[in-house]
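Ticket #4471: structure export looks truncated?
Reporter: QA, pipeline team
Priority: medium

Steps to reproduce: submit the single chain below to the structure queue and open the exported record.
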Amino acid sequence: MCSYYAHAFSCKHVTYSFARFCDPAGLIQTRCNDRHIWQTIRMDEHCEECKATHYYASDSGRRRR
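Actual output as written to the record:
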């Protein structure tokens, strides 16, 4: 199983970042289909999608430039 970092945001969404290949996948430098969470990193903020949604709701639909 290839290893990934999990980023757990305060909005409860989770994203994954590739960390390292497993031994069989390392020989061919191609990620396998099995995902092993190597470490979970807790984030103190919302994910980008929720930030955008929250920003629109709090600013009456106007977007800052």
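Status: closed, not a bug. The export was complete when the record was re-opened. Leaving a note from the reviewer for reference: Residues 2-58 form a domain with the Dna Ligase; domain 1 fold (CATH 3.30.1490).
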